[in-house]
Amino acid sequence: MFYIHQSSCISHQPTFNDVDLEDLKPSENNLIHAIEPKYENVPLGQLRRMGRALRMGVGTCMKLLGTHNVNGLLIGTANGGIEDSIMFLNQIHDYEEGRLTPTAFVQSTYNAIAGMVGMITVNHGYNATHVHRALAFENVVLDAAMLLKENLDNSYLIGGVDEISVKNHRLVTLAGWYRKEPVSNFDLYKGDAAGTLSGEGAAMFIVSNKSEGATAKLKNLKMVNSNDEKFVQEQLSLFVKENPGKIDLFLQGENGDNRLLKYYTTCESLMSGETTVARFKHAFGEFQTVTALALWLSANVLQTQKIAQHFIKKNSATEFNRILIYNNYQGMQHSFMLVERV
Amino acid sequence: MDREQEKLQLKQHIIKYLNLLHVTPEEITDDMPMFREGLGLDSIDSIEMVVMMEREYGLKIENPKDGRDILQTINSMMDFIEKGRAAKAAEEKA
Description:
The complex is a heterodimer of chains A (about 350) and B (about 90). With about 350 residues, chain A is of the alpha/beta class. Chain A has helices at about 45, 50-65, 80-95, 105-110, 110-120, 135-150, 165-175, 230-240, 260-270, 280-285, 290-305; strands at about 1-10, 30, 70-75, 125-130, 155-160, 200, 200-210, 215-225, 250, 275-280, 310-315, 320-330, 335-340. Chain B is built from four helices and no strands. The radius of gyration of chain B is 13 Å and the shape is globular. Chain B starts with a helix and ends with a helix. The interface of A and B includes residues 45, 48, 49, 101 and 103 of A.
C-alpha cells in the first residue's frame, strides 16, 4: 500500500514529545483523556477558538508539517468536534435560534481539522475528511492508497482523531457501551463485565511510495461489517492467506467488554504459537478512530523493536517484522491492518 | 456599579467570550485598540462581541458600520453601553 515516514500522536500516554510507553498512566473516573501538549506550531489566535478534537488534530498535523510539505490532507474522525456541536445546539435552544455566534459551529464541523490545517499551511491540494464511524481512519488509509496509485511521487498527511464529549459520554454510557461501575485501566481486562473505558486522541502520518527513510510499511488493509464472529474469522483467515508470512505481533483491540471478547478470541486462535499477542485499549481507551493510534504504536514497535510489558497478553516473538492489527467497534465494524518493518 | 467596575466586568466578558486564556483584565487598557496591533482580534471576534453585547447588555448593534466604531476600545464600548441604557430608560419612562 504505502510507506510511513513520520508520525505524531497525542494520547493518554506520553506519545507526543518524549515518547515513553513503559509506565502506564492511570485512567481517571472511567475516562482515558488525552494529555494535551503545548501546541507550539499552532497560531495562538486560532488555538483559543478550538475544541479538543480540533486542537489535537491540528496540533499533531502541524508537528509533522512544520518540516514537511505534502500533496494532500486526509483526516478520519467519527464525531469531529462533538463537544462544540452540542454547545452550538444548546445555544440554538437557549437563545431561541437568535443571538448565535459562528465559532462553535464553524469549529465543530467534521472537516474543520483538515480545513484548518490546509489554511494554516496554505495547502491547496487534496483535502478530505472521512467520517465512516469506526472505519473512518481505515477509509482514510484506503483513500490515500488509491491516491498514491495514481500519483506515484506524491506524499500525503493522513490520520485519525476523536475527542471525549462529556454529554455524549453520558448517552453512550446509558446505551451500555461504557462501564458504569468504577474501573481502572490497569484492570480493564480482568473480570467479566459489559462496557469499556472511553478514550480520545489523535495520530497523524506522512505517507508515500518511497521506501527510503521510511519507518514502516502499511502492507494491506481489510474492512468487514458483520456481527458474526465466524464470518469475521473467515475474513481474517483469507486476509492472512492473501498476505503470507510470519506474524510476529497480533495487536488487537480487546476492550474489556465481555460481549466483544468472542471476536478477539476467534481471531486470536488463527495465530501461531510464535506470535506475540498484545492489546492497546487500556492505554488509549475506546473510540472510533483508535486504530490510527494502533498504527502509530505498530510503527513505533517496528522501529524500536520494543513493546512495553503492559501491552503484552502472550509473549513469544523476540523480533518484530510484521504486525497484524485487528480491531472491532461495538461488534459490527472490524478492520485488519498489516504493518511491516522497512 | 460605577464606570470602572463596569469596565472590569466588560473586560471579563470579552475574555470569556473570546476565550482569551492568556490575557488578564488588567492587561486590557481602556484605550487599547481591540483589533490588529492592540489586542489582535479579528473579524470573527467582532461577531462574537456583537453577540456578547446583545446577550449580556441587551443592546443590538444594528448597523455593521457602527460596529467598527463601537467595538474599537473598552471606552467606546462603555460609551455605547451607557447610551443604550439611557435610551432604554427614557423609552420606559415615556
